[in-house]
Specification:
By secondary structure, the chain is mainly α. The protein contains three helices and no strands.
């Protein structure tokens, strides 16, 4: 008994899935590069005492998450940075 060949629609689904994964990988790499560039920006100093707004702090927390997901920082660095930023976040 012969095996059935793959259908054209299955091939299309597989190609679409691979294209979507490649696009997702590209976006992830672009975000990681953007986060690294922002971290290297001399005008932005996240270690200043409380002089940045809550929105900027939340953005920094998001960038920190992206850097961790892109494996640009270790778990210990991530936890330390996140705790520092959350401690500076104003709570009303």
């Amino acid at each position: 008994m012969a095996t059935q060949r793959t259908s054209f629609t299955k091939l299309q689904r597989d190609r679409a899935k691979k294209a979507k994964a490649a696009a997702k990988r590209e976006r992830r790499l672009e975000r990681a590069a953007e986060a690294k560039n922002q971290a290297d920006d001399p005008e932005f100093d996240p270690s200043a005492d409380g002089s940045i707004s809550a929105a900027e702090l939340l953005h920094e927390i998001e960038v920190t998450h992206q850097r961790f997901e892109a494996k640009l920082m270790s778990l210990e660095e991530f936890e330390e940075k996140k705790a520092e930023l959350l401690a500076r976040l104003p709570i009303d």
